[in-house]
Amino acid sequence: MLLQHILFLFPGHPAIFDAMDLVNGALKGNIRDIARLISVVENELPEATKAMQEIFPHTGKAYTVGFTGPPGAGKSTLVDKVTVHLCAQEKKVGIVAIDPSSPFTGGALLGDRIRMRDIATENGVFIRSVSTRGCMGGLSQAAGDIAKILDAAGKDFVLIETVGVGQDEVDIFKTADTSVLVLMPGAGDDIQSIKAGIMEIADIFVVNKADREGADALVTSIRQMLDLNPKPSPWRPPIMKTVAVLDQGVEELIVAINEHREFLVRNGLLAVRRKERIKAEIIRLVERRVAKIIQQQIRQNGRFEALIEKVVAREEDPYSCIERIVGPLEEVKS
Amino acid sequence: MSKEKIIRVMVAKPGLDGHDRGAKVIARALRDAGMEVIYTGLRQTPEQIVTAALQEDVDALLLSILSGAHNHLFPKITQLLRERGGEDILVIGGGVIPPDDIPGLKNAGIKEIFGPGTSTETIAHYIKENVR
């Protein structure tokens, strides 16, 4: 009660919230606390690290499924329907729905909820719309941590919907246990399906809007692409046909997701994937931290501006410029 | 490690009218003002709107209504917000609201009402000045 009063007196300071109270509330599944904790992490408030340290031991229980694919393929609708079925099986579901931010203003229009009405008030479902905040790769910086919070809050499944992707946004693969690539008919010839990048990461292919012309042709071209794989992997990604708006093929998709999960568990691959994920995350965080230190140092002493002037005047080249900045750091390590 | 906080708002259409051109214009303008705008689509129940606003941890909730049901739906939403711990969310109303209804709505917890003709800058400015 006292905290409420303090907040009332200082409405401009949401950070006054004890992050640990939020963590405790979130672990109990309190909606408001989960939501606020996510904001703390997204905004990189000072207490975010401490909060995630407390959250981490409670993670690893939820199964994470990524949904990626081009804009308009039906990712949100599919996530909606999948969640309906999971709820019917009495599973608790957390959803991270990512949409792009504006490169100009940093603002964003997050509209994934429009297609998630069936589950909007379902008990046990928590949906969070997330802006990429300039992050490339199809996810947002905080997406992984948000998934962890939902995991710790007791969700059985965490579904991550990426932004509408092109060909090269494959970060979801590093975050999800199972990656579902959602495609639709009528988007490009069969050479698209043998390009590198996103077509390689899918554990499950979904041809959504399968009642449209060209669905079978798309299935065939994906199948042929898979046949061309010179090193057949023990898991051959299934190709599922769905019409998400009509709830067709969704149950079969969930069966496929569960089969993939069982495959990973049976072969010890889930542990391998999760270990890789932790490794990649630690490297990413270290890189960010180091990059931040370097940026601060560069900006602090004003030497950077002087160096740039020299490069502009062609008195110095960019490569030796880098040497001057990074060289001293390399000496520190030895 | 801290950054400037990005304001999150939700634009919602309670009630049964099917006209969201105004809501979309506002959503777009607030996006351009650097905010993260969650739009939930037409014909939302107060229950849906409040659940979404809480999960999304929005700073402001903008309600647009053209059907005339504001005197019923707006207070219902603020009441649900209070019941579920969301009383600190700035709730703003818009649409076709007769002037006589405004005092009652403000009494019910709607902080401000913006009628037709309000510039989007005015709304963006109001939000920036008044969110927690």
Helix and strand topology:
The complex is a heterodimer of chains A (334) and B (132).
Chain A: H1 2-9, H2 19-27, H3 31-42, H4 48-55, E1 63-68, H5 75-88, E2 93-99, E3 108-110, E4 125-131, H6 143-152, E5 157-161, H7 171-175, E6 178-183, H8 198-201, E7 204-207, H9 215-227, E8 239-241, H10 250-266, H11 269-301, H12 303-312, H13 318-333
Helix pairs in contact in A: 2-3, 2-4, 3-4, 3-6, 5-10
Chain B: E1 8-12, H1 21-32, E2 36-39, H2 46-55, E3 60-65, H3 70-83, E4 90-95, H4 102-107, E5 112-114, H5 120-130
Parallel strand pairs in B: 1-2, 1-3, 3-4, 4-5
Helix pairs in contact in B: 1-5, 2-3
Estimated radius of gyration of chain A = 23 Å
Shape of chain A from CA axes?
globular
Number of E strands of chain B: 5
The number of domains of chain B is 1
Strand content bin of chain A: 5-15%
Radius of gyration of chain B from the CA trace? 14 Å
What is the H level of CATH, i.e. the homologous superfamily of the largest domain in chain A?
P-loop containing nucleotide triphosphate hydrolases
- Category by helix and strand content of chain B: alpha/beta
| Helix/strand order of chain B, N-terminal first | EHEHEHEHEH
CATH superfamily of chain B: Cobalamin-binding domain
Which oligomerization state do the chains in this entry correspond to? heterodimer
On the 0 to 100 scale, the average pLDDT of chain A is: 85
